[in-house]
């Protein structure tokens, strides 16, 4: 609507624009859950850019405009988004959401994603999961749940996703168009891992329901799977 749009940042451009002081999304009044989610979803990938442009039948144009013109485009253009822009979005979400504390309380990123993707923009769920052969369920993101792992000191995302799926007996019903993963929770007192190494690619072969895989003994197509 008259505003120029900017593509996600890649490679050298990402380092040049996003690295340094006064870069990223400015935090204010418990906004970290939203700042981190928005940065992850839009700074360096276009997978969810449909959220910014498509004329959804249920779509709230006001929220979409703030998201596109006040947050994503400035982030990609200058590498910086001021806290007032995020607060503008939070005020709009507080008006729309069933709960009214988006402007001051700390939230779970999943609560934010569900509100903005489902209720405001009307996007279909991104993930289809099946647990223990039961009925499949749909969701927008996957949160890693796991018990303390003594052998994992500095894990990567691949290891965490695989172990979390294994411990919950989960499978992906189909290859997702976008796989949003929330790292293990931690609070001020307890962090499960002090660091997690980002996996730049994720191999989901073993996480897919009914996908052909090779036998680890003979190399032929496997007929049985053990955990």
What is the H level of CATH, i.e. the homologous superfamily of the largest domain? Answer: Cysteine proteinases
Q: What portion of residues is helical?
A: 25-40%
CATH class of the largest domain: Alpha Beta
The gyration radius over C-alpha positions equals: 19 Å
InterPro entries: Papain-like_cys_pep_sf, USP_CS
Protein name: CYLD hydrolase
Keywords: Cytoplasm, Hydrolase
GO molecular function, one term: cysteine-type deubiquitinase activity
Description of the structure:
By secondary structure, the protein is an alpha/beta fold. The chain has helices at about 10-20, 30-40, 50-55, 60-80, 85-95, 110-120, 155-165, and strands at about 25, 80, 125-130, 135-140, 140-145, 170, 180. It has 2 domains: about 10-120, Cathepsin B, Chain A, CATH 3.90.70; about 125-220, no CATH class. Helices cover about 35% and strands about 10% of the residues. The strands form 3 sheets. A 3-stranded antiparallel beta sheet has the order 4-3-6. Strands 1-2 form a two-stranded parallel sheet. The chain is globular, with a radius of gyration of 19 Å. Keywords: Cytoplasm, Hydrolase. It comes from Pycnonotus jocosus.
Which key phrases capture this entry?
three-stranded antiparallel beta sheet; 7 strands; globular; 34% helix; 7 helices; 2 domains; 227 residues; alpha/beta; Cathepsin B, Chain A
